[in-house]
Amino acid sequence: MSTLVKIAKGSYCGNQVTNEVFSLVKDIKTGVKGQFITVNPNGNFGGNKDKIRINIDHSDHITYIDNSVKESDDEVMARIGERFDILHEMAAATTVGAVKGMVVTGAAGIGKSYGVIEELKKASLFNILKTGTPQYEVIKGSMSGIGLYTTLYNNSDENSVLVLDDCDSVFYDDITLNLLKAALDTTGKRHLHWTSASKYLEQEGIPNMFEFKGSIIFITNLNFDNIKSAKLQEHLAALQSRCHYLDLTIATTREKFLRIKQIYNTGALFARSNISEEQGNLIIKWIDENKESVRELSLRLAIKCTELIQVNSDKWERMAQVTLCK
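and the corresponding structure tokens:
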């Protein structure tokens, strides 16, 4: 059984590592740049590498965790399930203005976006039937300051929800961050201003000041605790103080696999795929056997396996080995 280590303070490739848990590969050693410890990636650091080195200033920053007694698979899935139940409940609460802001963070491909969007769809069903439009908007990718101002204006009505999904560029720009802080202000009315002259706003009929009454959900893989820039840390701390912060904490290989298995047990994982129950069982078995060597352990991996099993039900495992493993 692998030993776990908790690194209270360290650095990896210039990024701060704070209170992160890893599987230990090699204990502390001293190199030309100081002390380091070799560990397996944990989902937040290391990507698809087999092992990585975390630089540390002092051995006191390392805690060795007794992993001889651990949660059962059912206990892990129950813990994860509770987190997602909270996610669904709070996402629904944004549609009635009970929650004004929420940050949802966790490993990629574990169902963060799906859970949020499904709740928003259910809450918007009546409005869609009545007006043909939902009460929420999902934005992905990059966004400029004036683009965010416009989007906030278009979603400023009471009970409207703006979802910024993997739209991390808004965290790195002073203008967008200040707009978000104003939109999420917890004191009185939330007024947003655009003081620069803008032909675009004038052409679109958007005022230079408006009151934002909606809610905002951020969905990100970014861990706010591991930001190196002091200036950005200050901005994110101000943003985090205005939002509920939900870290789904699915980081280890075991937790990611059990999340896949959890969704499979509900019948939702392959609901849209034309495969048999037997084939579904084979896919889960293959993922379990190869979870340490796949390029990405996520719900998307299971869907890729269904595509291969439909291409060739006899050779799909070999095809998966070649295309999905390192």
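(Above: one complete record from the training split.) The chain has three domains: 4-65, 73-247, 253-324.
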